[in-house]
Amino acid sequence: MNISIVTVGKLKEKYLKQGIEEYLKRLSAYAKVEIIEVADEKAPETLSESEMEQVKQKEGERILAKLHPDTHVIALAIEGKMYTSEQFSAHIDQLTTYGKSKIAFIIGGSLGLSDQVLKRADETLSFSKMTFPHQLMRLILLEQVYRAFRIMRGEPYHK
């Protein structure tokens, strides 16, 4: 299985980089996982509604350019479907069973995802009704993907 995490912006925080590297190492036994960073759009702190849409659109174009047509796309969005860890594991297992060997998870920038990216997505996924920093979501997502593979294989994992 090939898993891509397409995400907006560079990661600067050392503690997040260390956690991400650890989960990428652990996941290498189960799948080929790559993180694809696209540039975030520079913008002032306060934006009008139309300026926010322009930022999301530009970031969205960069995201869409990284997706292959045969990839199953899962966009992370607050309004997406929520799973327990066991349900998420079963869902990933079902995707692979039905021939989805390429999965891309999309993490938007601080303003979220453009409508074009959400339309391209095969599904949306939410980890909570709460908002998390997009940089932290990389680590949370990798941990849950790792947990999903451990559950799939019947291997022990912290509950």
Automatic annotation (TrEMBL):
Give the GO molecular function terms: rRNA (pseudouridine-N3-)-methyltransferase activity
Range of residues in the leader sequence:
none
User: Catalytic activity annotated for this protein?
Assistant: pseudouridine(1915) in 23S rRNA + S-adenosyl-L-methionine = N(3)-methylpseudouridine(1915) in 23S rRNA + S-adenosyl-L-homocysteine + H(+)
Protein residues bound to S-adenosyl-L-methionine: L76, G108, F127, S128, K129, M130, T131, F132
Tell me which domain of life the UniProt entry assigns to the organism this sequence originates from: Bacteria
Report the main location listed first in the record: cytoplasm
Query: Which PANTHER family did the record assign?
Result: METHYLTRANSFERASE, RIBOSOMAL RNA LARGE SUBUNIT METHYLTRANSFERASE H
- UniProtKB keywords: Cytoplasm, Methyltransferase, rRNA processing, S-adenosyl-L-methionine, Transferase
Question: Which Enzyme Commission numbers does its entry carry?
Answer: 2.1.1.177
An example Pfam family from this entry, by short name, is: SPOUT_MTase
What binding partners and quaternary form does the record give? Homodimer.
The broad enzyme category this protein falls into is transferase
Q: What is this protein called?
A: Ribosomal RNA large subunit methyltransferase H
Gene (name only): rlmH
Q: Which GO cellular component terms, listed alphabetically, does the Swiss-Prot or TrEMBL entry include?
A: cytoplasm
Job of this protein: Specifically methylates the pseudouridine at position 1915 (m3Psi1915) in 23S rRNA.
> What's this protein's family per the entry?
Belongs to the RNA methyltransferase RlmH family.
Annotated source species: Bacillus smithii 7_3_47FAA
Q: Where in the cell is it found?
A: Cytoplasm
